[in-house]
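Structure representation:
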Amino acid sequence: MLAPMAGVTDRPFRQMCKAMGAGLVVSEMLSSNPDVWQSRKSQKRMDHTGEVGVRSVQIAGSEPDLMAQAAQFNVDNGAQIIDINMGCPAKKVNKKLAGSALLQDPKLVESIVQAVVKAVDVPVTLKIRTGWNQANRNGVEIARIAADNGIQSLAVHGRTRECMYKGHAEYETIRAIKQAIDIPVIANGDITSAEKAAEVMRKTGADGVMIGRGAQGNPWIFKQIIEHFQTGRKAALPSLQEQHRVLREHLINVQQFYSGISGVRIARKHVGWYLAQQDTDRSFRSEFNSIDTDIGQLEAIDRFFQQLCDRQVSSAA
């Protein structure tokens, strides 16, 4: 599964990951505050035009009634799964007592889950962390509340909110959660290769894996995981030609989806992720980030990959 990531898992990114084999892709989280639903950012996050497969939409908030209303609104807009965010560690989310801040209040967790499940007739899933901080790692308690109140599947990031994205994900709590409840449990955190996905499945006993940062600039990871699970062999890396094709397609989709300078600016971060391994001195990305036209960006990408291919041929000669 593709993890929901604010500012990342927009429609072009979801479509690319789905094409690469992701079984489920989850949209960026949407606020439960109806006052922001008509903003351009929210409208873009709600756009699922042309997407194939099941539509899973994540909502975030701290008031049960508003969360229920948001769930209903998104189902009316085409959502086939509602995912509740109780894992986001961002300060601006937590200060509103939403995201992972909710893990501090199991009673409120229960109220939100009950309200959302009651409000819609589609499956409701939940994403959490292992706890608020290392001294209060209450993931098992929250998981039991979820399972007892109608949550259909639980994704767990193997860090507390205190950890943010630092250090290494711990999988012991995910394993304990899997052993404590009967609903599917999805493991998330530090999964950056097919081999790591298999290792995490073994360590946690989870029913699946959710990929977040490991998919940034690397949508092939889903195809590689499938290949590794089917064959047991190390998955092949994409050729330069394949990297060029996929990046170019993704770039065009981003430019068209956002249009104008917004598309150009958003394309820059994706190109930075895609080329982190090839552009180690960041010279190309520095040049690319100064380009302010769609055509200019595409021409620069074409030149960059032509140079890489020429060097590859020279090395092989």
